[in-house]
Structures are given as structure tokens and as C-alpha cells.
Amino acid sequence: MSLIDVKLDELEEKLGYSFKNRELLYRALTHTSYAFEKKDVTENYEVLEFLGDSVIGLIVSEKLVERFPEKSEGELSQIRAFLVSEPSLAKLARSVDLGKFIFLGKGEIKSGGKEKDSILCDVFESIFGAIYLDSNFETAKKIFENKFIDEMWQILEKTRTYKDYKSYLQEITQRDFKTIPQYRVIKEEGPEHSKEFTVECWVNDYVSVASGKSKKEAEQLAAEKMLEKLGIL
């Protein structure tokens, strides 16, 4: 048995799911840097990540409607955006030590790729894209419920990041500083379907920086950091 097969076996055991087509799992774990270095590897996880993003989004949406029937559509959207954000999905990935299973190029390994939130989040999504293609949506949902739902609720209970920090920050700065926060995108990275945005937030001489999978998410995280700098949180 090859080292790759040993890796795949261990991850399948952690997930509680055996792939009918193991090539899908291998592809879901293959970073672009690894595919570039290995001439016999022609595919990476990006398309599966694109699919998995939708699969996880629907699973989380269903669970939120079940858990919070009294909340409005706007409130549910805010909570979902937080739960499917890069930091949250990276935490779920770490709960099964996903980083150790990812196939990375040498340079990416040296730069700590196995612990990067962006890569862990991408691979977590790609895994669920692969499960969906290998089986169906109900199977993907069952695995999420069995392996990750408790951790997801714990993440939600331990933080208030899903709240509208931008609005809260604006209220505070208008009241105390007679100004409003300014936001600017300073970096965009990644392929078109999976970009990461880095945003700066200014309030007078204070500056905060944060990254997210959308401009909106990055601005919310930057606003949260600014509130921490100002001693509000």
C-alpha cells in the first residue's frame, strides 16, 4: 500500500465515509502547488472547492433554519456568513487535523501551508464537493452532522463575530469621534471563484487589517478588530 493510500485511508476513517471513487478524494486534497510540481498530477481541488462551497452553504442554511426558527432572514444570513467564513471553516478543518492530509508543493509546505486558514478552508470545502459527487447531498449532510455540527455550534457560541460590527463601529465613531470609518481593499488573491480580500479600516489615526472570502466579510472582520483596538470589545 502506498503512502498516499495510507493517508486516504486515515482521512476516510476520520470522516466516517469510504469513497467509491478515491480519485475524487485525492483530487480534493491536491493543492495547485503540488499539481504544478508533479508532472503526473493534472488536477487540483479548485473545482471541487467551488462545488463544496455551495454544498456546505446549503447544509448550514438548513441547520440554521431548524435551530433558529424565530430569527429573520437577515439575521440568519449574517450567522451563515460567519459560519461559512474562512476562519470558521478552517476551525472545522482543524478538528479532524485536515492539514496533515493535504498534498502541497515544497514551497507551500515551507511557508506553513498546512496551517493556513485559506488552504484549510478551501480543502474543507473541496472535501464536501468530492463527497457530493461521490454520493449525494443527503450523504454529505449526514457526514457534516455526524462529524462537524457540534463543533460548528461551539464556534458560534464562543464568538459574536457574526454580528454587524460595521454598523456598530459606525455608531461608536460617529458618537465619540464625529467621523465614520473608512475601508479600502489593499489586496486581492486567488482564482476568480475563490478570491481572498484584505481590507484596511481607518478611524482617525487607528488602522486595522483583516482578510476574508468576500469584501463584505473582510470589512466586518476589520471592523471587529478596530472595535478591539478602541477598547470597545
Automatic annotation (TrEMBL):
Residues the entry annotates as binding Mg(2+): E49, D122, E125
Domain RNase III: residue ranges: 8-136
Molecular-function annotations in GO: double-stranded RNA binding; identical protein binding; metal ion binding; ribonuclease III activity; rRNA binding
Source species of the chain: Desulfurobacterium atlanticum
Keyword tRNA processing assigned: yes
Record keyword Membrane present: no
Subcellular localization, as worded in the UniProt entry: Cytoplasm
Cofactor(s) this protein cannot do without: Mg(2+)
Top-level taxonomic group: Bacteria
SMART domains documented for this protein: DSRM, RIBOc
Record Gene3D superfamilies: 3.30.160.20, Ribonuclease III domain
Protein name: Ribonuclease 3
Domain DRBM: 164-232
PANTHER family: RIBONUCLEASE 3 (PTHR11207:SF0), RIBONUCLEASE III (PTHR11207)
PROSITE patterns: DS_RBD (PS50137), RNASE_3_2 (PS50142)
Major location category of this protein: cytoplasm
GO BP: mRNA processing; regulation of gene expression; rRNA processing; tRNA processing
Gene name of the encoded protein: rnc
Subunit structure, interactors included: Homodimer.
GO cellular component terms listed in the entry, alphabetical order: cytoplasm
Pfam families linked: dsrm, Ribonucleas_3_3
Active site: D53, E125
Cross-referenced InterPro entries: dsRBD_dom, RNase_III, RNase_III_dom, RNase_III_sf
